Amino acid sequence: MLIVAIGSIPLMMTLGNSMLIPILPEMKSSLGLTQLQVSLTITVFSIAAALMIPIVGYLSDRYSRKIIIIPSLILFAGGALLAGLGAAVFSNSYVWIIVGRSLQGIGAAGGAPIAMALIGDLFRSGERSRILGIFEASNGLGKVLSPILGSLLALIVWHSVFFVFPVLSIISVILVWIFVKEKSNRQVPPPFRKYVRGLLSVFKHEGRWLFTAYLAGGTCLFTLFGILFYLSDILETKYNIDGAPKGLILAIPLLVMVTTSYITGSKIGSNLEKMKRLSIIGLLCMTISYSLLVTVEQLVPFLIILALSSLGTGLTLPCVNSLITGAVGKERRGFVSSLYGSVRFLGVALGPPVFTRLMEWSRTGMFLSIAAFTFLVCLLVLLLIHVKGMDGKKHKKKIIKYKYV
Question: What CATH superfamily classification does 2-181+192-404 receive?
Answer without folding.
Answer: MFS general substrate transporter like domains (1.20.1250.20)
